[in-house]
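Quick review question:
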């Protein structure tokens, strides 16, 4: 009997570099899963092209076609559920989700955020790190809960901030780490090692610290 391979739905808004990292991890066997579909809220997202080149069903659900966030998220939920995914992955999906949508996928929705959460929730994280004189910055993968960028952290990766860094240079350093750790977390989840329980990230039966697996 052929084993069932966990399926992933990936939500994007732009270039899709983390989507590509997931595609590549599956191709090399580092991630034992399949991408059931890719959904973008923007028609010009290059990630849609990445999906099509990989033979993955790709959809655009333009938020501008909806009167409000609630109606958009209802349509998004209907589209995702057509594929019955085991996991929903936010990979540069630049929209705040309603609590109803998030709760519908509680414990199986992930986001990657370019900061060392709980520091710098929201936008412009690289700019804030530079302006505040931080010596280190980074990225966090976390379960998604209704609180913006507030779900339990699974893993963080840290990078140095150099005195003459630009936002572009710092962002590139962070993005390189993103492409390493996101497929890793998804493999943990798809293999059953990682779960969310009572708003905690649980790895191999043990609760992870607030800063996740890579806590120092």
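Suggested answer, residue by residue:
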């Amino acid at each position: 009997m052929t084993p069932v391979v966990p399926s992933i739905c990936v939500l994007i808004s732009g270039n899709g570099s983390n989507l590509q990292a997931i595609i590549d991890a599956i191709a090399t066997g580092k991630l034992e899963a399949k991408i059931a579909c890719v959904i973008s809220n923007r028609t010009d997202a290059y990630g849609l092209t990445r999906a099509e080149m990989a033979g993955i069903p790709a959809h655009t659900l333009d938020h501008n076609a909806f009167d409000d966030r609630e109606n958009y998220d209802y349509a998004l939920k209907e589209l995702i559920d057509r594929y019955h995914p085991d996991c929903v992955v936010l990979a540069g999906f630049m929209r705040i989700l309603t609590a109803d949508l998030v709760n519908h996928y509680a414990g199986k929705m992930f986001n990657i955020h370019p900061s060392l959460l709980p520091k710098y929730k929201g936008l412009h994280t690289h700019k804030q790190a530079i302006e505040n004189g931080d010596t280190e910055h980074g990225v966090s993968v976390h379960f998604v809960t209704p609180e913006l960028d507030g779900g339990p952290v699974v893993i963080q990766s840290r990078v140095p901030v150099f005195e003459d860094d630009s936002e572009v240079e710092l962002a590139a350093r962070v993005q390189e780490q993103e492409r390493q750790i996101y497929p890793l977390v998804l493999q943990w989840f798809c293999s059953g090692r990682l779960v969310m329980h009572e708003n905690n990230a649980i790895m191999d039966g043990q609760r992870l610290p607030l800063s996740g697996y890579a806590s120092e």
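Why it works: The two ends are 43 Å apart (CA to CA). The longest helix spans residues 167-190.
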